[in-house]
Design brief:
The protein is an alpha/beta fold and 255 residues long. The protein has 8 helices and 9 strands. A 7-stranded mixed beta sheet has the order 3-2-1-4-7-5-8, with helices on both faces. Belongs to the glycosyltransferase 2 family.
Length: 255
Amino acid sequence: MRIHIKSRKSKKSGITPFLSVIIPAYNEEERIAQTLIRIDQYLSFKKYAYEIIVVDDGSSDNTVALVSKLSRKVGHISILKNKKNRGKGFAVRTGMRKAQGRIRLFMDADNSVDISHLDEFIRHLESGFDIVIGSIKIGEQRATERNGIHRRILGSLANFLIRALATPKIKDTQRGFKLFSARAAKKIFSRQTINRFGFDIELLVIARKNGYRIKEIPVVWDNPAGSKVGLSSYVFTLVELLRIAANRAVGKYNF
């Protein structure tokens, strides 16, 4: 699907935004404000209207208060609140359903993939792709991992199993920086069933199953210390991977 950028007024004017940015957040009080300011500063120089939707996933810290305060100062920012923790996949789906943009990006609250990558992603949507995803498994290696070698080992093992069982043509399913056309997002997220870390895999399986064109491009990934992804997250993801394989086998992802 080809996307053409046109100059837009601000979201406050009631004009549908060109871009929606969805950010799932869980106990991100130390990082979320910096990330939102960075995104808004970058996008403020663009000629299109945009919205930034933070979906709080039942945080017990000051994430909601910080985002709410910032949203009163920056009109492009809004917040949705889940009463309890439902998982990153659930939070992203919530944001995508609320989004109004003609193109829709989800990215991580820690800004591990910087918003400056967006222009290249948009160019690929304009050229006819439906989905553009960030990858550290293609091109020159541009990844910084600050959470120990065990994370790299577990990540490599998980990636091998994901490619073997679900997405053989995609080298990296797990980067939290993915851009969708509105048409693709509406269809794909309507079939999403996985609520936690395996949701990225499921989205791409659904997209492939239904003929959407996916472009994987290299990104710079800087994973900050203190990541919330532990050993249990890898175990849950592998369990979800088996669910995805079963769902695909019985035709659950067909439109």
